[in-house]
Structures are given as structure tokens and as C-alpha cells.
Amino acid sequence: MSSIAAAEEIDEAKERAHFRAVVNAFKYYKLCSLDRIHKSEKIISMLQPNHQRRLEKYKSYLTKFKKCLDANNIIVHLIIKDVDTMFENVDHSIDANTNGTENFGCNYNNCEVPSQKQHKMQHDVEKVQSVLKNIVRDWSDAGAAEREQCYKPILEELEARYPTKLSDRAYIKVLVPGAGLGRLAWEIAARGYSCQGNEFSLFMLFASNFILNKCHEVNKHTVYPWVHQYVNHMTSEHQIQAATFPDVPPATKHSDFSIAAGDFLKVYTELDEWHCVATCFFIDCAPNVIEFIERIYAILRPGGYWINLGPLLYHYSDMQTEISIEPPYDILLDIIKDVGFEILKEETGVKTKYAQNPNSMMQHEYKSVFFVCMKPLL
After folding, report:
1. Which of the four, 51, 181, 306, 368, has the lowest number of CB atoms within 10 Å?
2. What separation in angstroms does the CA of 281 have from each of 23, 91, 285, 337?
3. CA 281 to CA 194: how far, in whole Å?
């Protein structure tokens, strides 16, 4: 076997293992989430009787939390239904003898996983919990305020830069890297543009596939996105606050709309292809943000626009095993100009939130940057 073939085989094995791990995280969502409720129940049972009596009302809510998990679990399993065949020309089917899951020793009363695997499983289950919050952000009435903050400026700018008739917009190609659950890309396509979203995370891809391709009825499904949040509640009712989705029928097909899976830097290599690249909470997802800036410049057509909104969280910053650079905004602007972009518009201090519980006592709010750049004409 040649070294190239061996390397490809290793990469394929890693990809399949990652796919199985993500599927398992969805399958074990309920079991591992229940573990947190059982922890509270156990602690209460060990308190002195008088304290237990004073927590009777709260204990009744712990039972309600379990019912919320049941409802969420229905959605979680709908999301992963048929995911083995969601990618064209790729077989991610699971061996029959594993029944689609790895044996982590989970049972209904406790999620007992060997320490190393337990940490990884818990981390992945937290990503599933995050997916539920992102469903609310992108596809429910409850997320409308956040979409107003984050997506509306990009949509308005796009329409200002391309004030063409609806029939002509189909010739304008717009790319949305880091598309998440696809709402921004869907909104762009709904306005008549040819739009493709790009997403790397299988957690997001599984959920967006379900919403965009299988949700035909408005507000058919219900999730309880805050049931995993145990702090900063005014009332227990806030923890079991429900949200229905989708607020629009996303499976309505637009003329030219798609979601491409994969690493942005590997998927998009064609030069001068896109009229516009729209990024929202995306550029700080790169280990090396300069690579993103250079690639956006390369794939834009001369005269094309890059519209960006978001903070500079730099997701790889605190990962000990990852390479990461974290230039502040002023230096980032210098880099953008040095790559060749012309800065057409710039605004700082744009207040934006990301998947926030509106009833929480603690609110995280970014002072994001919003800018529009142009790749000069030749």
C-alpha cells in the first residue's frame, strides 16, 4: 500500500470515527442530561429533613425538567434520523453489531462513563445542548431579536450593494461561511440571490439538514432550550420555557440555495467566483484569521464585497494543543487592508447577543464590529 493511500485510509477512518462520536452524542443526550438532574435529587435527599421540606416545590420542578428532556429527546432523534445517508457519495453507516452506538455504560439512572470517555462524551453532549439553543436563535419567534441584531445589518447592506430587480438577483452569487443552522443563508436566498452556506460542524449540519429539508410546517416542533441552565433564574418556570420552531417553513425551496459541508479553506479554492461573501460570527473561528481573510479575498470577484459582523472571540485561543493568533481589531484592519481590501464601511460597538436566555439574570452581550470591504477592480 502506498503512503498516500495509507494516509487517505487513516483520514477516512478518523472521519468515520468522528461521525459516529457525533451521532452518539445525540443518542446519549437524554441519558447524560438526566445525570445532572439526578445529581440535584441526590444532594437534596442527603439534606436534613427540614431543608428537604423547604425544597419540595423545587423537587417538583426537577420532575418537570425530566419531561422537558423527553420533549427535547424527540427532536434530537428526529435530527439524527437517516443522517447516515445525508452526504452524497459518502457511506457513514454504522456496523450492525454496535447498534449505532458505542458502549459507554450509560443507563437511565446514571451516565457512568470511564473518566476519559466521560469527559469527551459530556463535552459532545453539551454541543447537542448548544444546538437546541441555536435552533431557537435561528428558527423561532423567540430568536427574532437576536436575528434583528446580527442578520438584519448584513441583509440590508447586501440589498444596498445590489439594488437589482428580484429577477436579476439570481445572478448574484453569495457565500455564507460558518452558516450554522442556515437561517442567514436562507434569508439571503429568500431575497432572490443565489446563495450557498458552508458549515464544518457535524452538530450544526445534522440539525440544519433536519430543519431545511424536513420541516414543512410552521411551529410544529417544541424544544426547551434552557432546561440545562441551572443558575441565574428568577423562577423555575424560566428554566422550562418552551420555544416552537420553525417560525417560517424553511423546507420551502428557493431557486438557488444550498449548504456545503466541509472546511472553508478546503472547500473554496476557486478564484474570483463569488460576488459577495457574508460572514457573521465567523472569522474568529480560525486558528489563523489571516488565512480566512486571504481566502475570502481570493474567491471574491474583482469588485466583490465582503460583509462582516461579529466579535473577536478567537475560539482556539485557550486550546493548549492548537496554534492560534489573536490580533486585536485595529491590527486586524491593517491586515485586511494589506491583503488588498478597500474598507467601505466600518462600525464598532454593535450590540449583539448569541443564543442568550432572555430571562436569565446574567446576559452576555458583544460589542461587535461591522464592516464592508471591496476587492478592487482590476
Report:
1. 51
2. 25, 31, 8, 20
3. 21
Give the model confidence (pLDDT) of 93-111 as tens digits: 544 334 444 433 333 334 4
Structure confidence at residue 165 as a pLDDT band (50, 70, 90): confident
Cβ-based neighbours of 355, under 8 Å, separated by 6 or more: 130, 133, 134, 136, 137, 146
SS3 of residue 315 by DSSP: coil
Q: Classify each residue of 315-354 as buried b or exposed e, where b means 16 or more C-beta atoms within 10 Å of its C-beta.
A: ebeeeeeeeeeeeeeeebbeebeebebeeeeeeeebebbb
**Cβ–Cβ contacts within 10 Å for residue 272, how many?**
12
Backbone angles phi, psi at 179, to 5 degrees: -75, -15
Q: What share of the chain is helix, strand, coil (3-state, %, to 5)?
A: 50, 15, 35
Q: Global pTM?
A: 0.90
Q: Tell me how many degrees the CA angle 24-319-26 measures, rounded to the nearest 5.
A: 15
Identity of the residue numbered 330: D
Q: What is the C-alpha separation between 306 and 375, in angstroms, rounded? A: 8
In this prediction, residues 285-308 reach a mean pLDDT of 98
Residue 190 CA from chain centroid, whole number:
20
Question: Which residue matches cell numbers 457535524?
Answer: 202
Strands in 7-165 per DSSP E: 106-107, 110-111
